[in-house]
Specification:
By secondary structure, this protein is an alpha/beta fold. It has one domain: Alpha-Beta Barrel (TIM Barrel), CATH 3.20.20. The termini are close together. It has 11 helices and 12 strands.
Length: about 300
C-alpha cells in the first residue's frame, strides 16, 4: 500500500514527521464574510511552510474539501516549491458550505465522485486525493444532508480503503459520526475524529479510542478553540493510559491570523512549542514518534 500525495504515490516510510489536519489554500469568505478566512497567497504559504520544514516537518495533510475553496493546482505548486509531501482531501465539508448539488445528488453518486477523486483526480485534474475529508458536522448533531455525505464517504472508503477524517468541533458529535460509519460497516481503524481538543472531555476522547478510531488533537495554537495549557493535560493523560497508537496531532492552520505573518502560531507551532511542553510533562520520545510519524504512516496508505 502507498500514500497518495499531490505529486504521486510514496511509500509510507517516506512520510516522516506529519501534520494530519491543515489547510494550505482555503476560501471561507463566501460563507463567513471575513477576509481572515482567505488563504490564497501561495508564496506566503511557501514561506510559512519553510519554518515547518526547518523544525523537522516532512509531510502535510491538507483536508480542504469541497466548499472550502480548494485549489489542487496551487497545492501541487506549493508541494513542488517546498519539497514537502502534501496529501489532499476530498468530499464535502459540512452543511453551511454545501451547495445545491449535495441535495440533488444520490448518496451513492456522492460516493462515486469521492472514489473518482481518490483514483483519478480532483475536479477533473490528474491530482489525486489521498484521504476522504474533512467530512463534517456543523453543530451538535448531523443534519440529514451531513449524514448522507458521511454515508457516501463510508461507501467511498469501503471501495478504496482510504481513511476518513472528520470535522467534529465543539460538541461530542464524533460518536454520532462513528455510529453512522459503523452502520455502513467501515473499519473504525480507518477513521480519524477531528478537533477532539475543541471539546475538552476525556471520557469523550477515551470513548472514541475504545471504538478503535483515532483521536485527533489538531487545534494547538488556535485561540478560537482553547488555549494549549488546557489541552495538554488531557493529552498527557491519554498518553499515560497508553493510547499513543490512536492519537494524531496537528495545528489546523485555516485563517490568516494563524500565520506567523499575521502574528499567529504558524505551521511549526507543534514542533517548536507543543512537543517541548509534552516532553517537559514526561511524555517519551517514543510516544511522540508514534503520534507524529508511526500513526500517519499507518493510517494514510491505501
Amino acid at each position: 500500500m502507498q500514500v497518495m500525495t499531490v505529486l504521486g504515490s510514496i511509500p509510507p516510510g517516506d512520510l516522516g514527521f506529519t501534520h494530519m489536519h491543515e489547510h494550505l489554500q482555503v476560501d471561507l469568505k463566501p460563507v463567513t464574510g471575513r477576509l481572515d478566512g482567505l488563504l490564497n497567497n501561495e508564496q506566503l504559504i511557501i514561506d510559512e511552510l519553510a519554518r515547518f520544514k526547518a523544525a523537522g516537518g516532512r509531510s502535510i495533510v491538507d483536508v480542504t474539501s469541497r466548499g472550502m475553496g480548494r485549489n489542487p493546482f496551487a497545492i501541487r505548486r506549493i508541494a513542488v516549491a517546498t519539497g514537502l509531501n502534501v496529501v489532499a482531501g476530498c468530499g464535502w465539508y459540512h452543511q453551511q458550505f454545501y451547495d445545491q448539488s449535495v441535495d440533488r445528488t444520490r448518496t451513492d453518486d456522492l460516493a462515486v465522485e469521492m472514489v473518482r477523486e481518490l483514483t483519478q483526480g480532483i475536479d477533473g485534474t490528474d491530482i489525486r486525493a489521498g484521504i476522504i475529508g474533512e467530512i463534517g458536522a456543523a453543530g451538535s448533531y448531523l443534519t440529514g444532508a451531513e449524514e448522507r455525505v458521511l454515508r457516501a464517504a463510508a461507501r467511498a472508503q469501503r471501495r478504496t480503503g482510504a481513511a476518513i477524517t472528520t470535522h467534529a468541533m465543539g460538541y461530542p458529535v464524533g460518536l454520532d459520526q462513528l455510529d453512522i460509519l459503523d452502520d455502513e460497516k467501515v473499519n473504525p481503524r480507518r477513521v480519524i475524529i477531528g478537533h477532539c481538543d475543541h471539546y475538552l472531555d476525556l471520557d469523550y476522547h477515551e470513548a472514541i479510542i475504545q471504538r478503535w478510531a483515532y483521536v485527533e488533537y489538531d487545534n494547538f495554537g488556535n485561540l478560537n478553540s482553547y488555549p494549549d495549557y488546557l489541552k495538554l493535560p488531557l493529552l498527557v493523560e491519554l498518553l499515560r493510559r497508553g493510547y499513543e497508537s490512536q492519537v494524531l496531532l496537528s495545528t489546523d492552520v485555516t485563517l490568516r491570523h494563524h500565520l506567523h505573518a499575521y502574528g499567529g502560531h504558524g505551521y511549526d507551532h507543534l514542533a517548536e512549542n507543543v512537543l517541548p511542553a509534552l516532553r517537559k510533562a514526561g511524555v517519551s520520545e517514543e510516544q511522540i514518534h508514534i503520534m507524529t510519524v508511526v500513526n500517519p504512516a499507518r493510517v494514510l496508505p491505501f
